[in-house]
Design brief:
Blueprint: H1 2-11, H2 16-35, H3 39-63, H4 68-95, H5 99-124, H6 136-148, E1 153-154, E2 157-158, H7 159-198
Antiparallel strand pairs: 1-2
Helix pairs in contact: 2-3, 2-4, 3-4, 3-6, 4-5, 5-7, 6-7
């Protein structure tokens, strides 16, 4: 029964790009809801949109409908979606005059972008780079919890602010880990190449 349902889905007109664009739309909705302080619904929309981001690649491989442009679109939308949602979080913090949280959100955006950029650049150099904790799934979980429970405070600090601070730290550390990882791998490759040449 499950195999039949999967085959029907594959035979349908559904494409990975449709799933990617649906995920993007849900993240835009989440961002709009955050600015209206509808945090629980916003968190659920963000989680659903992020789930679509995870499904599009899997569906692409399963259905054989993937294209090089589709992979490019998926990767690009992933970055935009995270940026849009974090921008909305920054707007919220600005509206409540929490300057430290605004700064944390900016660091979080830069850190998230650098996590993705370092991996893309390393893979362009032929180096696999998936080190570090702050990959996409953990970032989604942490931010979702922060958004849904934004109205809860611990020691006078909202859980949304705590989530942002945690992400700012984790993404920065992960980006640094990836830089050091690539340096180590490239140095080792250079050493091996020199040894082979001298030998």
């Amino acid at each position: 029964m499950r195999a039949v349902a999967r085959q029907r889905l594959i035979d349908s007109r559904l494409t990975p790009n449709t799933i990617s664009l649906t995920g993007f739309a849900l993240n835009v909705v989440a961002a709009a809801l955050i600015t209206q302080r509808l945090f629980v619904v916003a968190g659920l929309a963000f989680l659903a949109g992020s789930a679509m981001d995870a499904l599009d690649g899997r569906y692409s491989r399963m259905s054989g409908k993937g294209t090089p442009f589709g992979a490019f679109l998926d990767s690009t939308l992933d970055r935009v979606e995270e940026g849009v949602v974090l921008a909305a979080v920054g707007v919220y913090f600005a509206s409540v005059v929490d300057e430290v949280a605004v700064a944390g959100t900016i660091v979080c955006v830069l850190g998230s972008l650098m996590v993705s950029y370092t991996r893309a650049r390393s893979e362009a150099l032929g180096v696999e780079c998936k080190v570090g904790f702050a990959q996409r799934p953990p970032r989604v979980v942490i931010l979702t919890v922060g958004i849904v429970f934004a109205g809860v405070e611990l020691g006078g600090v909202s859980l949304l602010a705590i989530a942002v601070y945690a992400l700012a730290l984790l993404t920065s550390v992960t980006a640094l880990q990836r830089v050091l990882h690539v340096r180590t791998v490239l140095d080792e490759l250079a050493r091996v190449t020199r040894a082979e040449t001298q030998g």
